[in-house]
Design a protein that fits this description.
The protein is built from 16 helices and 8 strands. The chain is α+β, with helices and mostly antiparallel strands. Strands 1-6-7-4-3-2-5-8 form an 8-stranded mixed β-sheet.
Length: about 425
């Protein structure tokens, strides 16, 4: 997506350090026009605002005075004219001619550096652009340029050079190099949303899960920055949609969390030390740990059932459940609700629902339980894994002793009342005679 940010450079006008007329007027004294005819041509060419009318003047000047002292200045005017006419190949040719005469000429270097960002990139645009960008990282101040003007221009040249180097490195899949270039751009221009998106994109392309939070930070910044340096509205909309989808996939739907991420990203160009966004797996693990802490019996049952329900559930039963005393000592007892019993009174078998209303566990007793209980009665138990069927799911436990079960109503019933003896003071029967 990032490649769409930079438009094809077919009409970029070079920001000339010197105006066309000034470049000619302030040229070294030893440069001279050949005659009045050349003077008239360069005057007209340098003052004509219409590029379409200027081009034939330049061609005439070149044809009549091919060896002019002002050949380099003429090429700079050609370069600007070709750009205004969207004739990029000819502009590239003119820029290369200028650099053949003066390898440090900043107008040509600037144009070819921008040429390195055309879409789609070509072998020539990348090679030419990279070479020019490297030279533009240390531009040489032309004569007669005021220091204040040069300070501004120089900063723009260096920023553009890093943008081109980042673009080319990304196109070549040189991700580490591209990352460093984008970071440099953000140091020079913190409000550069395109650089933030580029940085987030190359970090994502490295496919390092531990850096995903960092990448989302930069994408959020690109999607949320406004004002100077922000993405164009259409592009910003695309990046924002990408952010929302990526954040929800990684972290889960969390409107408040995404809002906080945007606010943090807008406030600074780089994430703070230790910045992280918890992924879904981590959040699920935390929830499971909290659930297990607050509901140890049900948590253990869910884990046990998950193992039994897996593809190798029968093997899991044979290896870890059959013959084992469950649950472990730290859980004490499992808990379920009575669904049915056999027989209806003094049962030796109870069927329980462990989580909901579906029968999942059978408790078998060697000795019958006293009395009976109503469906829905909550029963706690521990027992020995005995048998298992996956479909329908049913796990049977042998409960050996009465102290291994609690919640059975008859266990707390009062013993039957003892028979009353003879009333106090009752008269004894007279003996028979």
């Amino acid at each position: 997506m990032f490649n769409k940010i930079i438009k094809t450079l077919t009409s970029v006008t070079v920001v000339a350090i010197l105006g066309i007329g000034a470049a000619l007027a302030q040229a070294p004294k030893e440069k001279k026009v050949k005659d009045q005819g050349e003077y008239d041509l360069f005057t007209k060419a340098s003052t004509e605002a219409d590029a379409a009318k200027r081009l034939p003047l330049l061609d005439s000047w070149k044809e009549k005075y091919p060896d002019s002292d002002f050949k380099e200045e003429r090429l700079i005017i050609y370069l600007t004219t070709y750009q205004m006419l969207n004739q990029t190949p000819k502009a590239v040719e003119a820029a290369k001619e200028i650099l053949a005469m003066d390898p440090k000429e900043v107008n040509a270097l600037f144009f070819l550096t921008r040429y390195g960002q055309i879409q789609p990139p070509t072998a020539d645009s990348m090679a030419t652009g990279e070479k020019a960008a490297m030279a533009l990282l240390n531009p040489e101040k032309p004569a007669n340029v005021p220091d204040a003007a040069w300070t501004t221009a120089k900063a723009n040249f260096i920023l553009t050079a890093h943008q081109t180097l980042a673009f080319i490195a990304s196109a070549k899949k040189e991700l580490d190099k591209a990352e460093q270039e984008y970071k440099t751009i953000l140091q020079l221009d913190p409000a550069n949303a395109a650089a933030s998106y580029g940085l987030g994109s190359v970090i994502l392309a490295q496919k390092k899960v531990d850096r995903y939070s960092e990448a989302l930070f930069h994408v959020a910044r690109a999607a949320s920055l406004t004002g100077q340096g922000a993405l164009q509205p259409a592009m910003q909309k695309q990046v924002d949609a990408f952010l929302v989808k990526s954040y929800n996939t990684f972290h889960g739907v969390d409107a408040e969390g995404l809002k906080e991420l945007r606010q943090l990203a807008v406030a600074q160009p780089m994430p703070p030390a230790g910045f992280t966004i918890k992924d879904k797996n981590s959040l699920d693990a935390e929830k499971e740990a909290e659930f297990a802490k607050n509901n140890p019996q049900l948590a253990f049952w869910k884990t046990l059932k998950e193992g039994l329900s897996a593809e190798n559930g029968e093997q899991y039963f044979e290896m870890g459940v059959k013959g084992a005393q469950l649950p472990p000592a730290n859980i004490k007892k499992l808990k379920g609700k009575l669904v049915s019993m056999e027989p209806a009174v003094r049962p030796k078998k109870l069927v329980l629902a462990m989580d909901g209303d579906t029968p999942e566990v059978t408790l078998r007793f060697e000795n019958a339980l006293p009395g009976k209980a109503e469906p829905g009665t909550e029963i706690e138990f521990e027992g020995i894994g005995e048998t298992f069927t996956k479909s329908p799911f049913m796990l049977t436990f042998l409960v050996e002793d009465k102290d291994k079960i609690s919640g059975w109503p008859a266990q707390s019933a009062a013993p039957a009342a003892a028979r009353k003896g003879p009333a106090t003071g009752a008269k004894k029967a007279a003996p028979k005679k």
